[in-house]
Design brief:
mainly beta, 2 domains, 4% helix, 17 strands, 5-stranded antiparallel sheet, Jelly Rolls
Length: 220
Amino acid sequence: MDWQTWIQQSLPRTENLRGGAAVWAKGAQRLTGDPLGPVMHLHDDASEIFYFVSGACRLEVGEREEHFSAGDFVLVPPGVPHNLWNAGDDDLLVFWLVAPHKADNKWRTMGISPDEMRRNVRRSRVMAGAELPSDENIHTRLVHLRAGERLEMKTQASQEAVLYIQSGQAQVRVGRLSGVLGAHEFVHVPAGTGFSVDASDAEATLLLFRCPGTQARLKE
């Protein structure tokens, strides 16, 4: 994957969420565009997810270390200290999402208690049939669409969503806008907006992030 093109994708920063594509390039000292850098920190009132697209990651979680590779997924609940590093010899590509977006309290690096250092993350692997970890801030669902199937939804008045095409391609409509998204492309869905994903010609798998939730139905 051409990561220099991939990271040009972005998500708006709203009160509900912030995130997008990030790269820790081979030989670099931090994630591209990361203002904090590799520092142990936590989010007091927000959750964070990481989906590892390629490369190898070492994630410090309080007093422990966990290792991740392409296809792994992790949810960091509020109040869990963490710090991410590139643990391989190649570029590390990761999709991340924080919700809600606390503009006046994005992270805390000081005063981390012994109890907080003992807390843990929840991890899984993005594969058929997997139930990905969710909480009250970020609900994650892995959706597989066969050719001819449609996912149709609408966000509620105060909720937002992100659609991430994990494999294949699909016709995606958000409100009155539509287009074809391929693997590892993503789009933001504003609050109170209808959207659909059509796998008209071939199968497609997507990660659906809801902050905090919507109602959905499958249509063939």
